[in-house]
Amino acid sequence: MSRHEGDTGPMEPRPSTAARLAEIARSIAFATAHGSTDERLAWLTPHLADVRLALDMDVAFVAEMVHNRRVFRVVSTASRSAAILDPGQSDHLLDTYCMYVLQGRLPPVIRDMHASSHQAALLPITERLGIGCYVSAPIVLPDGEKYGTLCCFSRSTRPELVDEDGDALREVARAIGESLAAQDATKPH
Description:
The protein is α+β, with helices and mostly antiparallel strands.
């Protein structure tokens, strides 16, 4: 619950994380429904920041899978000093969590990566990026093509994360996939 200083009225409950992510998914669908003329992913930047803030994470990103590589397309960080990823950077898919996400072999919510028994926790990228917790969802286009992933992580563990956070992030990823497909459909061939 939140209250502004000096406000004596009844306290209004904060929307749940799932409700906030559902709102973001709706705004993504609305933002691209009328054939955005921005660069292919520029419109996504403020929405990705909203996702990161809703989940209270240090980093959120959209990555595309290109020729067995994960390529960061849009990145949102909590602070410039936290910026360890840049759009255009890439890693071999086998060295990333994204491979497991796309294969459905990584739980959508990992509250404590260091206590996780999942083999992804052993990847060098865990230490390199300082991943303490992780929430992810595949981005799948309406025709079934796997575009990439929507992922968020924090350097600290997050025991308060719930499975519904992963479900809600999947809805945001679905909205991104539909929006990307709609943009492709409006391009002249």
